[in-house]
Design brief:
Six copies of one chain form a homohexamer. Chain A is α/β, with parallel strands linked by helices and 277 residues long. Chain A contains eleven helices and 13 strands. Chain A starts with a helix and ends with a strand.
Chain lengths: 277, 277, 277, 277, 277, 277
């Protein structure tokens, strides 16, 4: 992922947050002319994500710092692997270290969990998708990490897709009317997705011509029945309480998409550290 | 926590991220005049944090939305408890729901984990502290969540405290010189903290007059020995691989502070949902 | 349209642009205590758009100014109609007048031209859509003006829809491959639109399963043939050199969507003025 | 025009508006390593303006894109002329194309219309000036386009010049008092301009010592009489309903300045396209 | 001075600068429910400026704080006078105190020095004007303070007035040519000011038709001679090394304007304190 | 001082403030191709500070301008010394001159006054420290200037140190309780400083275990007595009405720190000018 204007803004905010008015310890102890080099090392196995971001952290901090990736985003690292190296003015490296690691560890955590879930659905047609349950301010990066782990992105935000939920249905007076209103009023380039809670609603959504139907919090048997009833007339998306225990079974029901909030709302960081030489 | 300029900026960024150019589904389906009300309900036990933030999300989105907290930040909620209620224009409530929940679930996750760790150190003098391993852009909120859970805040950022680490020591040519340089060059209002990796370094730090010594990644026996050697000459902080399995044992060694990166870098959200009436 | 965070930012930028360090004439001549009132009057016929924006201009400038709309966005005004009234401190009204009018005149110009084109396609199934040929920085308002005039919004930006163009086709090695790559890599919530330049390409796009096909710069006969060939398998969008001379004929070919860049790139303002009492 | 801090901010806003979270079509279809080149071609005659802006769009997006102007701002292009060429990573070129064209077409539209009006006043002493009827957020560029077309800039904003209008006159209790208040209270570096609606007011303004008098919406005979009465005591500016039909006649009356809102509020874009090789 | 968008931005920057992530002392010691009230008291004589700014500091920090001015900007306060009172939540008052005072003391310092210089020129026609030698970021406030003290504002910035200096003259090849270029190329609403270093240059500037001539660093005799030579053909401005020792003599030479950089570049704050009850 | 994200933002704000929409004089008179060079010359003796800032002003304005420092921040310049030279496009140099000088003169003024005070305390153990009485928006630079002049920085802002003042003491119900509350609630990395007004309070603060005690506005005799009583149990800081007349006497009392608001709130600029060749 090439750092663009959005990404640079996020990184600058993070740097200002962590450096504040200046790194007082380093300023007091480390001479301006002191140079350093070091290596980013994975301390446990994981799918790495955020190498480009980490590099950009140092570049925005001090363009004279050189950052060299040793692997690419999406590759697996084993404990002990060197994933990147950095060299240049010691003060800049020390000041940027924590921000670079905070991005790298969190994004790698997301990519790793996604990759795990994706591998558990091998042999089915189900793709793994994220949700809007992301960390405020970091969605663009977290959705990138999901892609890096092999997942797909659900709509980016409320402007980036149509999803008719319970409350929209009630406001419109039924699934049919809600779909109709959307077709009439919303931009034509979006598929129409409807969230349903039972098989009757599924039938209504199919009749209304929904392009995608989200099966919310259904048990395995019901999902299976839903797949049968839909018969390919709409894409089916399973959602709700998706985790490593349940995902394989959900995937084998024949749904097209499985969306999992946990990919981004409950992230265990991959442990990575910067070892200076 | 009263939402101030910093907090409002974070919330505005989150709202723009999630709403983008507008909620196309709601615009297409829900009339502008439609009103709604609902309740935020805990779906599992936890220490709640972020009620004020959630309320501010709606206020910034539409000042005519009313948000009423039912419990205060820091209180425990059980599954099923109503933690707040909201009422007003349906469109605004639907558009703000996800952002409010994203803050509330994450901050409650941090407060809950902190509270658990704090309770495990009851009867010892150890306080639980956070680190700089926070989510980029959210540190001010995440450190607030740690306080809400009963923890203490370590330095906010590189400008907010002195911590002499390995690399500073090498750059200065020893612990004694590094402490001396800090005392000479850094502002006088900060305590001087030194990170040490073994008992020899601890001795050096004590001789140098460090105010706080961070014992990095030491085993229980070494920590015990460190407490003995220090004899109250400096505050001692245990750090590295602190989790629920190990924290009690660490606390009983007699250290003053236990800092745990996992409080913020690996957060399991508390499940909370908005149920519209 | 309720002014939200995006809109407020645009208005604040416009106010700072026009007021700079302060209205030196008004400061020199008009006492702070001077009050005024006035009416916004249409000086020619048109569909009015931007009343809410104009009101927000004054509210952001001075909350004590009262602004009362007399008609709603989307209604037609005739020359001489009062469309809104304003009263309060004279200095604020004088300072905000030009900014309010600049928004109101331009947005009404867009809404009016859209309404004209929409009325010319009455009795056909074609909807009128905008493009990305908008004024930099004002897209959210200009697309709103198109909706106000009865048009539909094409994708908001490059992240808000899939449109496979000539260069994408060449990069992918054919329409089939480009559609396939999109289906595999892009988020599932978007329809896939392909821009074609001739009927052979149309056939390819239909075979590839495109949801929407944009017919770029085709003559009327070719468009008619395209409608016949497509036979409802995809939505068809006519694009290129759409203006009032040609639109009716294009609409009667049976296409589903007609997109017109001129709606926003070549706008004749509706003449509106503020008459102080 | 060298892109400065103001211009870069406008361009960044435009890029973020058009690219959003990323160009999903290009990301799905075009490999990161794909290179491209192309030429910007005028599809109709016009005075080109915005070449430097278009180049900066690409530079800010991706510094590795090379942009080469073939003509300079202010030169005339004929249909078919190549006005610039661009080469580099295909993804960046495709993502920046629309923003570059939106600036280029609009600014060239303004420069072209200005040049037309200027040429119609050849042989008179009248200069053509713009107004504050510009597109919100783009004034600095639109006024530059007017200069590029051979026009002059009226005051940039309310802080950039003194213009005593009807309402100021009433608030002050007459033209004489308004001019006097301005001379007393406003900074000394500005000329004092007064807007008048009839010849009596002109006389008052001349007596009061106005440096410039704006003749608002007067017919040709009245303007001629005004020129005679003023006899060089003040600069005279004709304003109101200035278009190509009327401008020559107005210029021949002997006024010094003709200001035309239509230069910026009603712009027909010059058609320019990017043809990739 | 009514706080507008520009002013609010300056105040918000100042509050964020001084409060950072929060007032840790007050948070630790003062209960949220604690209320306080206090009075701003002049501790020495001076012309007060910034009362409205100080009030806005508290309003932006916490709208529930009440701030009541006791005197108006521009009035003289004697040591001991109460200039404003404040009441509300103690935490907010303590957190805003320093920022409010920093504005108030500095602006009052500027207004007081201006008032002193103005009073020293009583009986002459000379007005006192400021320069661009202001504190970066605070110009709009500092120029307001000069007006509050009875001075006039020279051009706000490089876009707000024409001043032909030595280097412009050399680039143009003489004063005559520089004035001519300006008349031809610059907007017509500005007076043309020329800076001259001797009487020969003054003659050239007068011949060229300069509206204002700045006499740079001339001694009293030369200024007198300049006034005689100009004979009212242009306004004359004396500039350079203007302070309280010299200003009276300069004023009595008959110049129209005296500009003094020291008004803003070398400010002695007026001592003001907040006494809590 | 290396210009970082914070500094660049301050410089950009200053440039936009001073240049506005563009330097109209230079644009009218100086050809774009005109080159220039010049030297920054001290016109009086002083400690120079801000050379790096001045260079960055030009770099941000036009990267093709070359700026060469002749001395380093912290060195003394005598009247007539060349402190830096600059060369490149004349337009950029003329446009950046005033902003560069405004920073340079003010920061050198602060550094010079600090150096004077520091030299007056030679032979004592007292260090000179700044306060929060800085110019709004420039604190990071002004505190840097104090360091450049040989002073120390007191806390950066309310989040950067603990200082228990009168009002905190009253809110807590005594010095002991306030210190206790701070120890319990505030982050552990800060020393606890208490401001006292008399010797009784000093005793209380010492008993409470304060790390630093600020002696507010005490006369020399009382300060001497305080030093005796404290006997090294806490650092002592003298504050209030510190100026060149009194500082030596205060320093010889044996206090550790002397803090002087005047260092930043009442600054006499060092006169520096740019002489073009």
């Amino acid at each position: 992922m090439k750092p663009d204007l959005n990404i640079n803004k996020i990184i600058r905010t993070a740097l200002q947050e962590d450096i504040g008015q200046g790194d007082i310890t380093t300023q007091a102890v480390v001479p301006d002319t002191s140079m350093a080099s070091g290596r980013f090392i994975a301390k446990e196995n994981g799918v790495i994500c955020g190498i480009g971001i980490a590099g950009q952290v140092f570049r925005l901090l001090d363009p004279s710092i050189e950052f060299t990736p040793h692997i690419e985003d999406g590759q697996k690292a084993c404990a002990g692997d060197v994933i990147a190296s950095v060299s240049g003015p010691a003060a800049g490296i020390l000041s940027g270290e924590r921000v670079a690691l905070n991005f790298l560890q969190r994004l790698s955590g997301i990519a790793s969990r996604t990759a795990t879930m994706v591998s558990m659905t091998q042999g089915t047609k189900a793709v793994i998708a994220d949700t809007r349950k992301t960390t405020p301010g970091l969605r663009i990066l977290e959705k990138y990490a999901v892609r890096t782990g092999g997942g797909k992105n659900h709509r980016f935000n409320l402007a980036g897709g149509i999803l008719i939920k319970d409350n929209h249905i009630r406001a419109a007076g039924g699934i049919g009317r809600a779909v109709e209103a959307t077709r009439k009023n919303a931009p034509p380039g979006f598929k129409i997705e409807v969230e349903v809670e039972n098989l009757n609603q599924l039938d209504e959504a199919l009749v209304a011509g929904a392009d995608i139907v989200m099966l919310d919090n259904m048990d395995i048997e019901t999902i299976k029945e839903a797949v049968k009833r839909a018969g390919g007339r709409a894409l089916l998306e399973a959602s709700g309480k998706i985790d490593e225990k349940r995902i394989k079974e959900v995937a084998t029901t024949g749904v097209d998409i499985i969306s999992a909030g946990a990919l981004t709302h409950s992230v265990i960081s991959v442990d990575i550290s910067l070892r200076l030489d």
